[in-house]
Design brief:
With 465 residues, the protein is an alpha/beta fold. The chain is built from 14 helices and 24 strands.
Length: 465
Amino acid sequence: MTFGQLAAESAALATHLLDAGVGIGDRITMVVPNVAEALQTIFAAARIGATVVPINLRLRPDDIRFQAEDAGVKYAVVHPMVEPLAQAAGILDLPYWRTDDQLQTAVDTGRLDAASPPGDTTLVQLYTSGTTGRPKGCLLTQAGWEASTTSTRAFLDLTATDVVATALPLFHVAGIDLCLSTLAAGGTAVLLNSAEPDAAWAAVTDHGATIVQSIRGTGTFLRAAPADLNRLRGVFAPGGWSSLLDDHEELALWTGYGATELCGFAVGNTREVLKDRPDTIGRPMPGYEWRVVDAAEKPVAAGEVGELLMRGPMVTPGYWNLPEASAEALRGGWLHTGDLMEVQPDGVLRFVDRLKDMVKPGGENVYCIEVELALAEHPQVKECAVIGVPDPKWGEAVKAVVATRDEVSAEELDAWCLEHLAAYKRPRWYTFVDALPRNALEKVVKTELRAAHDEATSVRLPERT
């Protein structure tokens, strides 16, 4: 699809949506994989001031229903491939367009006279779980996306000659950020629906990709590459990047840290820094103001640890219908990320731990308390604690440390979790213990659990297809 086609079709869709009754601030949910129609919908909503609510396709129907009801969704765009999921979640009870014939008819019948609303209009409402497990609707404005894409473009040095192949889903803030940043640079975005190396290489070869992102087993992926690597100039690696430091030195290597509240990537690292300091996450990207502060919110000195605060036009203005949570997260005009960092003298940051007890397998946010509550409901689980551990496939994976009443296998607990949680939240690792370590206040000491993690004595479950 050319830029001209995308512009014309999104403008036509925008006027069709207006004619269908979609107004400023109305919520349109998207239950779609990585398809061009998702971008059409985002740009159409931008033209008329509507707000897109992308749905994570890995969620259970009840989770999707909650998000749609919480957001007050009035309309939907649904891909036929995931129509059963949308049906189970009640999405098809709304006025909706399928991404095949129905959306194309909407484009064909739409006019081309929709205008753009102010930049502080919310364009995307993405749900991010809180520490209580209750999802929060994070508001991201049109001006925020402009600022975020400007920052990401500068970090990756994106130009109109770039072809960026990404398997990051467009229901994920990082997927939207990278795709919009590529288009903002005049480049070509190649949307992958598989992160497997074979499928990725086919896209890289067919489209002449210059950058790839979010490919599983990045090192394995490159070892299977053609000798000349086609036009590839760099890899934006979410994890498993360490093998790239010595291999393929001709390629640029980037890693990124971000959050939904930051409109995507906000801190980036490069091969040059990673080679000497592989435990760092890099420097804040252009356009972000930042500081690392102690408990009194005073900036810490180099070498000390504190919470990372950030601000700028790309930062969320708050959470949907949650004024207290918004005020707490944005107190003093700074987003409190909940992440502890060590500042190095040259401004490079090293991630230390999370104030928000959270694991990020493959970039997805998994809150430990949600998994712990699900496991605790199993009749044979006496107590449990969930932590994040290094994992060769996901970079970081969910691990459950479990004390049981009677004998129970990791496979049985896995089946239980799959009944009660989204699949990506399931623990990949298990260790069985007699009792959890606790401090004088009877709180579980998770630092001990992380330090005690041993691949040789832990159970690593196979991946599910």
